[in-house]
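If your schedule permits, I should be very grateful for your opinion on a structural question. Please examine both parts with care and let me know of anything in them that strikes you as inconsistent. The record follows directly beneath this note:
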Amino acid sequence: MKQLSSSQVRQLFLDFFETKGHKIEPSASLVPIDDPTLLWINSGVATLKKYFDGSVVPENPRITNAQKSIRTNDIENVGKTARHHTMFEMLGNFSVGDYFKNEAIHWAWELLTGEKWFGLDKDKLYVTVHPDDEEAFRIWHEEVGLPKESIVKLEENFWDIGAGPCGPNSEIFFDRGQEYNDVAEDDPENYPGGENERYLEIWNLVFSEFNHTENNEYLPLPHKNIDTGMGLERMVSIFQDAKTNFETDLFIPIIEATQKMSDGKEYGKDSATDTSFKVIADHIRAVSFAIGDGALPSNEGRGYVLRRLIRRAVMHGKKLGIDKAFLVDLVPVVGQIMESYYPEIVEKQDFIQKVIKTEEERFHETINDGLSIISDLIKDMKAANQTVLSGKDIFKLYDTYGFPVELTEEMAQDEGLSVDHEGFEVEMTAQRDRARAARSKEESMSVQSSLLTDIKVVSEFVGYTEDTVDAKLMVIIQDDEIKEATTEGNAQLIFGQTPFYAEMGGQVADKGAIYNAAGDLVANVVNVKKAPNGQSLHQVEVFGELKTDDTYQLVIDKELRQRITKNHTATHLLHRALKDVLGEHANQAGSLVAPGYLRFDFTHFEQVTPDELKQMEEIVNEKIWAHLPVVTVETDIDSAKEMGAMALFGEKYGKNVRVVNVDGYSIELCGGVHVSNTSDIGVFKIVSESGIGAGVRRIEAVTSKEAYEAFREEEGLLRQVAKCVKAPQLKDTVQRVEQLQEQLKQAQKEVEQLSAKLANAEAEDVFKDIKEVDGVTYIASKVAVKDMNQLRQLADQWKQKSLSDILVLGLVQGEKVNLLVSMTKEMNDQGLKSGDLIKAIAPLVGGGGGGRPDMAQAGGKNPEGLQSAIDSVESWIKEHK
């Protein structure tokens, strides 16, 4: 049999179908672009749905692809079985109403057995068909020449998702030989299609020829389709005679790189260790590709999947003795393996590594404490003969230490324990309720939706070009009723046309006034929102008579509108500048365009540095000072995309859209209002940058007058600082502050030296009082040092001088107590641990703590209990010696 690399297998497949007139579709992003029903692209056909559902007619009805895919529905099996993966490649050939069963079967056989192609032994190939699919049976037997005993009829060979296109399918199996068989000869599963390792499914041919109706009827499709899927990893395992997919060139280089980072662990020596190697190899591939396609770790959706994969891999790394960030170093290995067909991993390597490193380090900050807690919980449960890990404990690990509940469950299962899912959900629900109660509730002037839904009158927005307009009053709504007239109170109005912008796309609504024909003010517009049928709904305070069918003059607050437009155009410039500085992954995740400031939320995995903020601010101001024209055009959505227009977060666009083009630098789909030239903005200043959630950052900025005021405010603060530090002139402030810092540094050094002397004096007194019980020497005492740091310094001195077997020190600072326990290695070897001792005495000071066997710390809020804690050390030693 041929020996083929993974790259050769993939390329041969695509080349073969190209000779059969197929167009090779490139592998699409793992993040679905226009399919909200999918969390990830999970199959080769997933990206071709638009062709099969008829919404788009393909240029060529014959299509082939190698599509990267992610499935995480059975993530727990990854690493434990031979062929479970989170990310895999699906090779496929597809016919959209063109060829059908005959060609699909013949071409499959030609590719698999042809000497020019895969060249597999015909005698080792078996197929399954549906019992009613006589045509497929006939083609396989009479035309292809497969003997009847190599064709298995299976009732489950029918591809049906419940409604829509469906049909019988034919699966192709490769006989790997008796040496791979994991079941007995007479086992009922010992056949192609059964649960065994000998007969490996390599290709599934689906013949979509029926439409499964809602009435549960199967009607013939007017245009029959072909949808096939071949797992690349499985095929490669055959050509490389690999026991599992993981012993192929797709994974072995990753496993070998991981081996070098482990504490001497080797692949192939132990099943548990092998599982860890496999999990890491699988997960780093999935994570690298997903991040390369724009996904970022977070606490929900696909971001949570990424975070879970990274943390799961980190946990398995710890099982291999890897206690540092290591996944980041495997990204280049993934890139080298996949570069021939997926160069994007190498191209985006720096970015992918940056994201993974940030996430790994964040997890490592808390992982040791979390692992210690889990281990202690499991130990205590086993001691108490308990078998279920409580929901409260799981929630604490999740909420405090960032442990996904799935990881906790895996660790518990490894120890033969189960998990209280319901209890965990109760705790999660309680937390959500607390958060919901803490959020302020905005009052709404909206009326009953059923009332608004029935209003069909037409209202036209003319505010792009007009700031004042005469318009007929069409509808008055007050007290949840439609009225003919009103003279006071709050009301909601709909006019035939309006210059008032309704709150939408992050831009706040216009405000202004309404005048009657005599020029009298009859109402103030305080807000404008979109009604269910698209009309502008003006929320007003009424001062005079308003009647339907009368004409009124609508006047927006021009000064307010100007400030809004400056901030909106500045938002577009910031969006583009942000991508220029941070990278294309920094996508908008929300915005607010108000008259006084702008707020911009975006996806990014780490804090933006001051230098990066400075670069963005400079870019935006340079575009402002360049006097760039801002042109808005209306066009169809396809033309807008051809122009390179960016669509904004959360927006839904119709067939016709508005494109805001800032001289080719920033091109976005946007229905808001903008300046006509960037110079109208005046000046731009970033005032803050912060994180508002996992993977989401927020920038707030000001323009024009507000920016000038911000500069003046900062200048005022600088003058105050100059005065405080007695700088002769404003420009001397920094130098003067540096001088004071150096003086302070020297003073602190002197304080530290004096504190050290005091600590040494305290140590001489404390270390003299050495007690002994049952052959164990110990020092247990209250001390009067400055802080916890000096407490640890005393412990270091004790250790260097080998003064006793056990040291227990207590420190009172106001209403707080600090405890420290340290033990020699000899004590640890005899089964005594610092963590166990501190857990026993910490409750006496109203606290808790933990740590390593040789040293542990605790804190408490009951200073009165410190002496009891010190006194109890003797009895603890007697009990545990």
Notes: The two ends are 66 Å apart (CA to CA). Residues 438-449, 648-652 have pLDDT under 50 and may be disordered. The longest strand covers residues 199-212.
